[in-house]
Write a structure and sequence with these properties.
This is BHLH domain-containing protein. InterPro entries: bHLH_transcription_regulator (IPR052610). With 124 residues, the protein is an alpha+beta fold. 35% of the residues lie in helices and 27% in strands. The mean pLDDT is 73. A 5-stranded antiparallel beta sheet has the order 1-4-5-7-6. It has a two-stranded antiparallel ribbon with strand order 2-3. It is rod-shaped and about 80 Å long. The chain folds into 2 domains: 31 residues; 65 residues, no CATH class. The longest helix has 28 residues. It starts with a helix and ends with a strand.
């Protein structure tokens, strides 16, 4: 038979092992989630509103003037083999269909989408 000291010693050792396993799992989970902003709403314009101008060769062609285009803001959160994306862009005809086709063109599977429209923009 085991005496009380041995039982307590074994119990303390077991609790310490479980605490170490828990800490290792928590550390692994903390490392597996990253958040990155890929594009932060730059724009293209030929006006004097602080946006970069197109190259002189584009304006010298005598074509129509370049209008202001705001690029989408994209945020991607990566967790192991999953990627959650938030895209804020100007609303336009077919923008959602084009976006989904581009994502699938990267050989990614879309499991869920949520679209919220605001005046003159769309949040995907």
């Amino acid at each position: 038979q085991m005496d009380k000291a041995t039982i307590l010693s074994d119990a303390v050792r077991y609790v310490k092992e479980q605490q170490e396993k828990l800490k290792a799992l928590q550390d692994r989970d903390a490392r597996s989630i990253d958040s990155v902003v890929l594009v932060k709403r730059p724009c293209i314009s030929n006006g004097d509103d602080g946006c970069p101008s197109p190259p002189p060769s584009a304006a010298a062609g005598g074509g129509p003037p370049t209008t202001r285009v705001t690029l989408p803001e994209i945020e991607a959160r990566i967790s192991e083999s999953n990627v959650m994306m938030r895209i804020h862009c100007q609303d336009g005809k077919g923008v959602l269909v084009t976006l989904l086709a581009e994502v699938e063109g990267l050989h990614l599977s879309i499991t869920h989408t949520n679209v919220v429209s605001f005046p003159a923009s769309t949040l995907i």
